[in-house]
């Protein structure tokens, strides 16, 4: 499974907690792929989300650098460290979050400099473009890809656990096996519940 994420998105965060639980229970690996809502929304007014998108991109650039330095598993653990601080932790001191998260994983503190360097921008853009290519137009994050079939979502709150998490996975896995299945959606009635 590939999981395309922007660290700033609370919906993405909850889906990642579900996906991590299912991966552990079902014994598969997640290929963590940072993408950027800032890149997706270039040329559009992001309004109140503009600063969050900018910070999400900065953390995505750090995640790309960590992937090159320490591999995919470290990207997943970094995303967890970022998310715990930002989402249930309700923090927005992003430079400190980046530094603490790298420290928690015993990664080089110098990797934090990637947040303000554009060296990883090309890869972040490529990940974002690829996610849009495989999931289709007019989607956001999270995006998951199962055996090469990509979907926006699932968007869930709170993140399902236990048997409920596995039932959701089985349904999505089944939907991915149907070549013509594209969309199933209903309006949200609740905000993120961490």
Q: Which structural class do the helices and strands define?
A: alpha+beta
CATH superfamily: Glutaredoxin
Poorly predicted runs of 5 or more residues: none
Shape: globular
Radius of gyration: 16 Å
| Total domain modules | 1
Number of helical elements: 7
Mean pLDDT: 93
> What amount of the residues lies in strands?
5-15%
In order across it, which strands form the biggest sheet?
A: 2-1-3-4
**Could you give the count of β-strands?**
4
- CATH class category name: Alpha Beta
Q: Which second-level CATH architecture applies?
A: 3-Layer(aba) Sandwich
Here the CATH topology equals Glutaredoxin
* Alpha-carbon distance between the two ends: 23 Å
The H/E string reads EHEHHHHHEEH
Task: Report on the biggest sheet.
Answer: 4 strands, mixed
Q: What portion of residues is helical? A: 40-55%
Would you write up a description of this structure?
- The protein has 194 residues and is an alpha+beta fold.
- The chain has a single domain (2-176), classed as Glutaredoxin, CATH 3.40.30.10.
- The chain contains seven helices and four strands.
- Strands 2-1-3-4 form a four-stranded mixed beta sheet, sandwiched between helices.
- Helix 1 (10-26) packs across helix 7 (162-176).
- The longest helix has 21 residues, at 50-70.
- The protein is globular and about 45 Å long.
Q: What attributes characterize this protein structure?
A:
194 residues, alpha+beta, Glutaredoxin, four-stranded mixed β-sheet, 4 strands, 51% helix, 8% strand
